[in-house]
UniProtKB/TrEMBL annotation:
PROSITE patterns: EF_HAND_2. Residues 1-29 are annotated as: Disordered. Keywords: Disulfide bond, Membrane, Mitochondrion, Mitochondrion inner membrane, Repeat, Transit peptide. This is EF-hand domain-containing protein. It comes from Diceros bicornis minor. GO terms for cellular component: mitochondrial intermembrane space; uniplex complex.
Length: 348
């Protein structure tokens, strides 16, 4: 991707804050202190970025994949400073790259992703496919179901990683990350053991009941039972519809009704239009049955899923139903404004 307009460390606090590239040659304590002042997403971006050009930090496609698979980068190497020729060579190589669900893996370190673009890609990973259509139509000025680079320039979003953004690209990105995570937790096998699935599900979780979840995994899940890639992808599809699913769960809470397997299955179908396999449903229920009453502890389940979907970058809050939806609207608007602000333009 191309050169963004957002360096990486805050010079001062507040709206419209200028950002400044930190000097990593200073003591680690100084660098860590600066990183600690950033938002969770900016911290993650800075931890995984490996390139610098004219004082601004960038990720490679490989860096991006690692940033959504892991919480932190171990054995961080020094940042590579790029020249103008390096940039030109990278962009020339991208022109030849083919699209598909291995796009980021095929590019590897041949690409640049700015912080603005990082936010955009994270958004793609958390939205249902129906949500893509709205954003896509906003950018598709020609109505040809393709968004060319020139159309992105009009909204100051400098996506140099790929020359043409299509709706299929968004689907492919979700599929690629899902395949990478499946391979990561299945240890490279074509199936994932149920305990591997539990490890993936709880990877970013730090709730007080985490030990109970793992106790359920040890005592309730049978050894040798597995989950296929298709089942895993179906569950990931479900996690992009949590807002609709949360509404269904709130109805059970207000009615003081327990959420049993049949109700859960129906709520998933209503929220996503698809069904989860009994294999997945059985696994989820056994993990999140805190009381042993064969009912889902759905509030904590939703919290775990949100944290999983946002790769540990979601901050939970205790809200009422009305406050929750106000927060959803507010954060959605903030997310859009942040991308536009990073690109250097207002919304209108």
């Amino acid at each position: 991707m191309g050169r963004g307009r957002e360096p990486a460390v805050l010079q001062s606090q507040g709206e419209g804050t200028a950002l400044k590239t930190p000097d990593r040659s200073r003591k680690n304590t100084d660098y860590d202190e600066m990183i600690g002042k950033l938002s969770l997403r900016k911290q993650r971006f800075m931890q995984f970025s490996s390139l610098e050009y004219e004082g601004e930090y960038y990720m490679t496609p490989r860096d991006f994949l690692f940033s959504v698979m892991f919480e932190q980068m171990e054995r961080k190497t020094s940042v590579k400073k790029l020249t103008k020729k390096d940039i030109e060579d990278v962009l020339a190589g991208i022109q030849k790259a083919g699209c598909g669900s291995t796009f980021f893996r095929d590019l590897g370190d041949k690409g640049l992703i700015s912080y603005t673009e990082y936010l955009f890609l994270l958004t793609i990973l958390t939205k249902p496919h129906t949500g893509f259509h709205v954003a896509f139509k906003m950018l598709d000025a020609d109505g040809d179901e393709m968004v060319e680079k020139k159309e992105f320039f009009k909204v100051e979003c400098h996506l140099y990683l790929f020359c043409i953004l299509t709706f299929r690209f968004m689907e492919n990105l979700q599929a690629e990350v899902q395949e990478m995570e499946f391979l990561q937790f299945s240890k490279g096998l074509s199936f994932m053991r149920k305990e591997d699935f539990a490890e993936w599900l709880l990877f970013f979780t730090n709730t007080a009941n985490k030990d109970i979840y793992w106790k359920n995994v040890r005592e309730k899940l049978s050894a040798g039972e597995s989950i296929s890639l298709d089942e895993f992808k179906s569950f990931c599809h479900f996690t992009t519809h949590l807002e609709d699913f949360a509404i269904a769960m709130q109805m059970f809470s207000l009615a003081h009704r327990p959420v049993r397997l049949a109700e859960f299955k129906r709520a998933v179908k209503v929220a996503t239009g698809q069904e989860l396999s009994n294999n997945i449903l059985d696994t989820v229920f056994k993990i999140f049955d805190l009381d042993g009453d064969e009912c889902l502890s759905h509030e904590e389940f939703l919290g775990v899923l949100k944290n999983r979907m946002h790769r540990g970058l979601w901050v939970p809050q205790q809200l009422s139903v009305q406050e929750y939806w106000k927060c959803v609207k507010k954060e959605s608007i903030k997310g859009v404004k942040e991308v536009w602000k990073q690109a250097g333009k207002g919304l209108f």
